[in-house]
Amino acid sequence: MNVKLNVMNLKSALNKYVTVSPDILGGTPVFKNTRVPIKILFDYLQGGDNIQEFLDNYPTVEKTFAQKVLELLALYVIKIETGNDAAA
């Protein structure tokens, strides 16, 4: 993905895959069209599970959505680490 990614672009890109609404789990970020918090994916990965195990247990989450969230956040972190993020 060759995108100039800053905070505003990140939020805009994530909006395609993530919903934040006070009406859904009190504003907890969830995968779009689900009630599955994004944090659960990170909990799985941190616990040593892979993305497929997460998807098997949360079939309402589209694989593409999980992959894109990880990809976008990874790109943003890389930009911060390399000092290429003007917004940081």
Description:
The protein is mainly alpha-helical. The chain has one domain: Winged helix-like DNA-binding domain superfamily/Winged helix DNA-binding domain (Arc Repressor Mutant, subunit A). It has four helices and two strands. It has a two-stranded antiparallel ribbon. The chain starts with 6 loop residues before the first helix and ends in a 7-residue tail after the last helix. The model has no long low-confidence stretch (mean pLDDT 88).
Summarize it.
With 88 residues, the chain is mainly alpha-helical. The chain has four helices and two strands; from the N terminus they run H-E-E-H-H-H. The chain has one domain (7-81): Winged helix-like DNA-binding domain superfamily/Winged helix DNA-binding domain (Arc Repressor Mutant, subunit A, Orthogonal Bundle), CATH 1.10.10.
- The fold-level CATH name is Arc Repressor Mutant, subunit A
Domain module tally: 1
What string gives the helices and strands in order? HEEHHH
Rg, nearest Å? 14 Å
| Shape designation | globular
End-to-end C-alpha gap: 20 Å
Total helices: the number is 4
Structural class: mainly alpha
Chain-averaged pLDDT: 88
Give the name of the CATH superfamily.
Winged helix-like DNA-binding domain superfamily/Winged helix DNA-binding domain
Strand order of the largest sheet: 1-2
Strand proportion: under 5%
